[in-house]
Structure formats: C-alpha cells, structure tokens
Amino acid sequence: MSGYVTAERVATPWGTMEELRARRLRPGPGTAREAVLRNQRERLSAAMVASTATKGYPATTVADLISLAGVSRATFYELFDDKADCFRTTVRTLFGAGLALIRHRLDGPGNPTERSERALGSFLKLTASQPAASRMSLVDAYSAGSAGLEPINETFEEACEIAHEAMQMLPNRGRIPAEISRAVIGGLHRVIYIHLYQGRADDLLDNCDELWRWAYGYEPPDGLPTPRRRPRVAQAPVPFAGRDSHERILRAFARATSAQGFPKVTIPQVAAEAGTSNATFYKHFENKDDALLAALDLSGTQLIAAALPAARRAPTWPEAIRRAIESMCGFLVAEPAFAELRIVQAYAAGPVALAHRDQAWEAVVDELVPAEIRRQPSPVVWEASAGAMYALLYERVRRDQLEKLIELPPLLSYLVLAPVIGTEEAIAVAAGPPSRHASVARNL
Predict the structure, then answer these.
(1) Rounded distance, CA 392 to CA 405, Å?
(2) Total Cβ atoms within 10 A of residue 80
(3) Is residue 31 helix, strand or coil?
(4) CB atoms within 10 A of CB 111
(5) Taking a C-beta distance cutoff of 8 angstroms, is the pair 254, 341 a contact?
(6) Cis upstream peptide for 377 (omega within 30°)
(7) 170-220: per-residue pLDDT in tens?
(8) What is the dihedral of CA 30, 34, 39, 42, to 10 degrees?
(9) Triad 34, 38, 40: Cα angle to 5°
(10) Which residues 6+ apart lie within 8 Å of 185 measured at CB?
(11) Are the C-beta atoms of 93 and 45 separated by less than 8 Å?
C-alpha cells in the first residue's frame, strides 16, 4: 500500500520502535531500577502511539504493545493496570509536554503579544512534527472511552485557564471573559482536529498567522446582554415523531447513545429502547455506525428546518446568522437526545461522524452568507469560528446543563460574526432583540 508505514517505523516523541528497542536498558548491576522502568514506560507509550496509528485503539491489544516494546507481559502489568491505563497515561504525558511548551513560551522574552504568538506557533509546530502522537491525543482519544475522555477534558480545562491568563495580558484584553478564552481554545482544537484526520498536519504551520489573527481579534464583547432569566422551554416531541419506524428507531438510538455513550451502546439496547426487535433494526440499518450517520442526518435536517425560516426573513446576512443560532439553540434544548448525540457523542464516533454532523451548520452558512463574504476571510477562520461555537455548546451539554443553551445565542453570534464584520458591528448584531421565531423553534 502506497504510503503505508509499519508500526515499528512510526515516528513517536520517543523515537521509532526500532530505535527504542536498540536503546533498551536491561536490569542488572550498574543500571538503576528507576532508569529501567522509565525506559520501559517510554517504549510502551511509544508502542501505544505506533499501534494506534496503524491499527486504531480499539484493535490494539496488550499483546501488540508488549511485542512492539520488547517487554514481558509481567512488566506491562507492573507498569499499567490494562490497555486503557496505558493509553490514558500516554495521552496525559503527551498533553503535559504540549502544555509545558506553551507555558515555557509564555514565560519567555518579549511583550505579551509576542510571547502569545510564539506559544501558538510552537504548539502548532510540535503538533505537525508528531502527527501520529497528535492524532492519537486529539482525535483517536475520543473513541477510547474514559481512558481518552478523562485526559482530554482535564487538558482542555487547563488549556482554557492558560489561554485566559495569556489573553488578559494582551493590550485592551484585560476584561476578556473566560468564555471567549474557552471558545478560542475550542476553535483551535477544531482546526487542528480537521487537519490531523485529513492528514494535513504540515498545513497547520501555513495557517499559523491566520489563526493568530483570528484568536487575537476577539475583544471583550461589551454590550452583549446577560440573560437574567432563562425562558421556559417546552420538551414536547416534534409533531408525528415516532409514527415512522425509521425515525422511531433513530430517536431510540439517540436516547440509548446518550445514556450509554456511543462506544458502549449495543443494538439490543437500541431495539429495546425503540420497542422493536434486532431484526427490525437491521431492516433499516447495517450496524450502529450506519444508524449514527442516519441519526445525524435526521437531526441535522430538522435543525436546518428550525434555523432557516426565521433567518431567511432577516434584513441582512449577519442578522440572519443571529436568528439561525437562536433557533438552533432552541431546537437543541427541545431535543436533548439529539443534542447529546450531535454535540458530544459524535466525537466518540470519529471524524466521519463529525464531518457528517457539521454539514448542517455548513448548509446554514452556505445559504445565509453571500459567497463573496464566505471567501473572506480564509476557510480556516470559518472552521475556527465554528469550533469556538461548538466548544461552548459542548461544555453545556457535557455538564448536563442543556437548559443554559438558551443563554448562548448572543455570545455565539459574536464569535461567528466578529472575525468577519469586526467587533463593534458584531456586538451590535449579536445584542439585537430576540427573534419572535426563536420561541417557535424552542417549542418544536
């Protein structure tokens, strides 16, 4: 196969497996035990990166790891509880190195703007230089259950804190809200994620300046309304929901996936939730991956239907975006299972599912924003702005705070609009009166 690299030759932060096995330390006189254990841990961590890069995490076994690392099974279980523990430890080590590099650059010479720009550039360079380790940490980890989600969520929170401290030191950014810093980290994560799963890690360096201008461009959004009271949102199902067996199964799939998590949900659980049989499920869908894409398609179509009617009546395209975001948030609150599926569980299903999920927002933007506007700024800025929006949605849904989505449209609108029309105009549009159509979407 063209371009295929065996696990032994995958580049890892510790070296290739061939290089590591050549440098392995053996226990004995003159060799400190801690040095031997550190050498073994590094080889096993490198083996996890190499095996995940070539086989994927689900297919990787402990036997694969000990074979690649050249250690015994007893040694593996002396160092790690199981495969998941090895994965979790490796991801935490990789994230720790990335955060340490960022802190080092932020503490370096120069003014706050120079240090922050240097920190971003160094992190993107590190990411591009280690595509296998970066993809494992930022893409594959979502499909590893708690072994991946725990270090991802921990690191994301720490990165948000670092970003907030750094942004507050920038000129005229002392009052920047923590939500903006979180959104910026989310936007950068989305761009990096897309580049990694598309095999374009090297292109990150070409977009470094554009991403810095995007992140640096957000100013404190003074004038955005702060909701004092959460509107009441109806939770009734949409009309005729469940009368069609195809849709009934997909809604059951969304509920079961929300409860169990995508990696763990089974066809019998979905069938039981739908009140049908496994055979009926397989009449409609090949497997749970097929059902997931169908559920994303169904919910995405309904999301678009909720967003566009009010938006099409807006006098300008920025106002149309604000109205669409209001209606989309209302839809997600009214459809909690679909919200969990789209905002959280799609990550666990992998890049194909996420790309399928994103089609709804892309369709909204394509219809509402004139083509000449979509071409400026660059596509990476639109990707980053969408990631900023998803980051704030993800936080609320992951923390089971779905009702708080209704508070977000002004800030989400600002995040999408500011890089295109500027801070002042974006605030004016985002702070506009709520569309009367949003209440209709909330009660779907």
Answers:
(1) 9
(2) 21
(3) strand
(4) 10
(5) yes
(6) yes
(7) 999 999 999 999 999 999 999 999 999 999 999 999 999 999 999 999 999
(8) -170
(9) 115
(10) 156, 159, 160, 163, 391
(11) yes
